[in-house]
Design brief:
Blueprint: E1 3-5, E2 27-28, E3 36-37, H1 47-51, E4 57-59
Antiparallel strand pairs: 1-4, 2-3
The chain binds iron/sulfur cluster (SF4).
């Protein structure tokens, strides 16, 4: 499993709230752009899916 990011769903106008909930530092964001995931760090905990109100995150 890995995390997929649908950038089209992200309004890209705020700090991504999922970043501080990710326990492994797998999520990063440049400015207010859509977040990016390093799937080599992801442990598939699913927290980002629950935090994001826009449904940007999904599981592959
Ligand atoms: S599933 Fe968990 S470890 Fe993976 S990116 Fe989301 S919050 Fe981070």
């Amino acid at each position: 499993m890995s995390i997929k990011i649908n950038k089209n769903r992200c309004p890209q106008n705020h700090p991504c709230p999922a970043i501080r909930f990710c326990p492994t530092g797998a999520l990063t964001q440049k400015g207010f752009s859509a977040p990016e995931v390093d799937n080599s760090k992801c442990i598939d905990c699913g927290r980002c899916l629950r935090v994001c109100a826009f449904g940007v995150f999904s599981k592959n």
